[in-house]
Input
Amino acid sequence: MIEPGSPAPEFTLARGDGEKFTRADLEGTTTVLVFYPFAFSPVCTDQLNLYHEVRDEVAARGATLYGVSCDATWSQTAFREQLGVAIEQLSDFEPKGETCRAFGVYHPGGFPQRALVIVDPDGVVKWSYQAASPGDLPGANLIFDGLAT
Amino acid sequence: MTELGSAPVSPLGPEDHVSGPASAAVVIEYADFECPYCAVLSARLAATSLRRAFRHFPVRSSHPRAWPAACAAEAAGLQGRFWEMHDLLFADQGRLEDPHLWQRARELELDLERFDEDRRSDEVIARVRRDFESGIRAGVVTTPTVWAAGVLHPGKIDEGVLDRLGRGAGRDTRYHPLRSD
Output
């Protein structure tokens, strides 16, 4: 996966409102990209619920959390609304997995690895982490470790 | 800004809710009152001779009534009835709305006005949050999670772990004697 110190790659993701989210949106702010395998799956549900609970503490550190998956925006929106979480979702649906590949987190099974990437305001990867298995849920403590690096 | 980076499970302190023999092996449970697996674990721990500490780990979007229930337990604790409220909450997880919490408070003969004021107080909210944040720092991601003999066990804990601890294996002696409440 992409290593700290690397510039974030060029990419395009779809926001829930149909607008694009690109590398330019990373500049000027700290961004935490939460790559997760599947909307509505059990571990992804627990992960977004957990991270939602600490989003204010993430924001207090000047950072913003985003969920990234290969699900369509409609699916991501339904997922977010069902959970009642405020973490914005970004879709890597078409071309499928292109952004995941650019960050080196595309699983051969056709979905994102469970991974966290923190990009600093200059567009450089500050910290990255990939779970040993897509079934492993990284604790929220790791995000704060990454932000503190 | 609250420190939330990685840290070991915090040692037991005077604010912790602890029950069981002082000489027994210690287990720390991170749990919430709306979680059915936590209710099962609670019953299992109550049947052991382990020394157990309960810490709140409510995640609102998973279990929306877990936070108010945690605050109710803490408010009961301020009147010396934490464990009784703990047991009543786990005994009927389908009834965790405010009238159900008041009913439990009446059943425990709490000062209802004080209970209602306390459960909404900054002090109680901070107390619940303190537990939650200690869990976050330790890498807790789900409920129940049990810390035993230096190891975190997320989700359903293996039967053998509690049995072994109950027989004295894995006893942790790092903690000082504690009061029970």
Notes: The interface with chain B takes residues 45-50, 52-54, 57, 60-61, 83-85, 137-142, 144-145, 148 of chain A (CB under 8 Å).
